[in-house]
Protein 1
Amino acid sequence: MLRILLGEEPRLNHGLMEDAIETMVTTTQLLQKEIDKNQDPTHDFRKLEIWTRGLIVSLDELEQSCFAAGHFRKSVKAGYVDELSIQEQGEYGRYVYFYKNAFIRVFSILDKLGTVLNDLYDLNTSKVKAHFSYFTVLRQFKYLKTHEDLSRELEAIKDSYRNPMSVLRKRRNAEVHYMNSEMQDDLWQRHKGLNDKVELEDLDQHLDDLKQGLDMVCKTLAASYHYTNKLWSERGMKA
C-alpha cells in the first residue's frame, strides 16, 4: 500500500520475508483444512488461524514502514537540525514517523508471536508474568524444558541480533514510556554544549538497526512456524 502511495511498484516477497510469509500461509491452510474436517467445536483452530493471519498482516505493515522510513530519509541531506530546509523538515518528520512506527512494530509482532506460542504449546506464561512479552515466553520454554529444538533455535536468533535489538528496545522504551526518542537525542546534545548546533542522529545507522530488527522478526516467525508445521505434519496434518 505505502509503495503505491509513494509511486513505487508493489513489493515482491523474497528472502527472509518470503520464507516467513509462506510458512505462515501454510499454517493457515493446515488450520483451515482441520476446521473443514472437524468443524473445530472448541474454536481453537479458528483462533490460531486468526492470530496467524494477523501476524502476516503485521509483518507486511512492519516492512512497509521500514521502506517508507528509508524512502523519506533519502531527501534529508543536512547534517544539523538548524540547517534543515523547509522541505527537508517535512521529509525528516515523515522519516521519523515511519521509523518510530516500525521499531514499535518490531516488538509488537514479537509479543503477538509470544501469545501464539504460549497458547500453542501450553506454556502457561501468564502464571509467571501476567502481561508477558515474547522474551518471557522464551525463558518459559527453557524453564519447562519443552520443545527444546525450537527453544534453542529461537534463542540463537535472539542472540545473533542482540546489539541492534538492544538499540531498538531502548528507543522503543523512550518513545513509549518517557519521551520521543529523537527529542532525547537532541536533549543529550544540548546538555553537552548549550551553544552548539544540534546534529541529526545517524539516520543510516538507525535504518540499518531497523533492517536487522525486521530480519530478526522474519527469522523468528519462520522458525516458529516451520517447527509447528513440521510437528503437525508428523501428526498427520496435511495441507
Protein 2
Amino acid sequence: MKLVKLSLVAALTAGAFSVASATPMEEVIKDIDVSGVLRYRYESGSFDKKFPGYRNDLITSKQNHQYRAQLNFNAAIADNFKAFIQFDYNSKDGGFGNNTNNISNTSDGFHVRQLYLTYTNEDVATSVIAGKQQLNTIWTDNEIDGLVGTGIKVVNNSIDGLTLAAFAVDSFNEGQDQKYGDTDASPVLNWQKNLYGAAAVGSYEALGGQLNPQLWLAYMDENAFMYALDVAYSTTIFDGVNWTLEGAYLGNSVDNKLKDTTGAGNGNFFALKGAIEVNGWDASLGGLYYGDKEKPTLTVIEDQGNLGSLLAGQEIFYTEGSQLNGSLGRNIFGYVTAGYTFNETVRVGGDFVYGGTKTGFEGLGGKKLEAVARVDYKYSPKLDFSAFYSYVNVDRDHGVKGDHNAVRLQALYKF
C-alpha cells in the first residue's frame, strides 16, 4: 500500500522528522510504503477428564479473545537503501483456562518487533538485509507469528527462476511471546547459540507444469546440522482439473553437546501429499513419518515450521509425542481433506487425520485421530473470515483415552 497523503504516518513521523529536519512533511513521507495486519481470534477448548498427556500446546481456554495488529513502514532513505520497521500489538482477553480470571487487557502496547536495513544492488540482483527480522525459513513459521532473530541475510536473484540466500543469526525472540501462544520455539534446543544457513529456492516451468524445488542447509552452534528438501509439482491434467504433488524430507544430525544435555537424537521427517481441484471441489491425500521411539527429536525449530502445505488437521500435531518442534515418539499419520468453494468466496470443508505415536516407554504411545470442520469466507481481497471445529481423540496403549474439542473464529484484514 503506497501512502499518498497525510494520515496516520504523519502523526507517527511528525515528532521524529519535523524537529530534526526542515524538510517538509510531504517530502518525508512520500517514499514510505505502509502495510499491516489486523487479526482477531476467539478460541475455546475443552478436555475429557481422562485426556492423556500435556495440554499446554493445545487450545485450552474456555473463552479466549486474541488481538493482533502489525503496522509496517518501509522507507527509501538513500540510493539503494531502505529501512523497515514493524510495530506489533499482541494481547489476549478471557478466561485463560477457566472463567475465574476474566479480564479485558488494556495494558499491552505496541512494541518494535522488526527493525532492519536493506541494501540492494540491482546490477548483481543482490540484497543485504541486516537487523532484527523474521527468519522465514523452512524450519520456522512464516506467518505473522514467526520467529524473529537479529542477524544478516543475503539474497541473490541473478539466476532466472532461482533465489539463493545465506543468513547468520545471533539472537532470537524465542521466549518473548510465549504468554500469547506465539513463537513456539523448540524446547530441545539451546537458544543461546548462533544459527547459520543457506537456501536455494527455485520456480520453473517444466513437464507441462510448474516445478518448485527448495534446498535448505543450516547449522545451529552446539545444537544440530539441519538439511531439508521440498519439491512441489503442479499441472493441469485435463480441462479445468488441477493436480499437485509435493514431497519433503527434513533431517538433522544432533551435536554431541545437545545429546549429552537433553538426550536428543537425530531427526528424520518424510511427507508426501497429492491434491486435486476441479469445478470448485478440492481434495488431498497425504502421509507423514517422523520421530524416534527412544529419544526426543525435532523436525523444525519453531512451531510447525513452514510445512503447512504438507499437514492437515489443526490440533493433533500439538499433542504429546507428536510436536514437530521436538518430542519423544515415532509418529506415522495419514490424512484426507476435502472441500467445496461457492462462487470463489466461501469454502466449506473438512480434514480427517489418523495415526499414532510409538515410544519405548510403556503407556506413552497410542493411537490418535482428529476430525476438523472448516468454513472460510473471502469477503474481499483484503478481508477474510474463517472458523473451525476440531475433535481430537487420544487412545493410550495402556487403555487411558480421552477427547479434546476446540473452536476458533477468526477475522483477518491485510492492507
Protein 3
Amino acid sequence: MKPTVIIYLLFSLFVLVLSWEEQNAKAVATLHQEVSAEEAIRLRILGNSDAIGDQAVKRAIRDQVNQAISEWAVELDSVEEAKDVISSNLSAIEEIVAEELEKAGLKQSYQVEFTEVQFPTKLYGNLVYPAGVYDAVLITLGEGKGENWWCVLFPPLCFLEMANGEAVETGQETGSESEQEEEAEDEVEVAFFVVELFSNLVDRIFSSEQA
C-alpha cells in the first residue's frame, strides 16, 4: 500500500476521534446547566484537624449554620438580598460556632468571614458550579488543617451535600464516585477501541505489503 494511502487512512482516523470528542462534549453540555459564580453564595468549613472529635464538631457546626441561614434566606429571591442578610448576620453565625465548641468542651479558636473563596467544580444534579472564586461564608476552626466541607447556601443546596457525605477537594469533583467510575470506564473503552482500530489498520497495511 502506498505511503499516501497510509497517511490518508491515519488522517481519517484522527478526524473520526476528534468528531467523537466534539459530539461527546456537546452531549454533556446539553445535560448540564452551568451556574455563574455571581449567582451563588457558598459555605466552606475548615476543620481543625482530621481527628474524629474535630470532624464531629465541624459537622455539628455545619448543621446549625445551614439551618440558620436556610431560615434567613427562605423567602429571598435574589443573590444580592441573600448577601445582605448573610453579611448582616455574621455575629449570629459566630455565636453558633462558639456554642457548638462550648458543647464539645473545646477552647478552640475560630474565624467566621463573608469573603471571596476559591472552590473546585461541583455537580448538583444537572447544575454545574464551575471552579472559581465565589462569595462565601468561610468558617475556620482552630488551625483549619482538617478535612473541609462545602456546599451552596444560596440557592440552598446544602441539604443535598449532607445527603452525599463529606466533600473533599481532589482532582475530580464533578459528580459522585459512581458517576466518575462510569465515566472512567467509558473513556477506557473508547481508548481501547481507538487503539484496537489503529492496530488492525496497521496489521492490514503491513500484511498487504508482504503479500
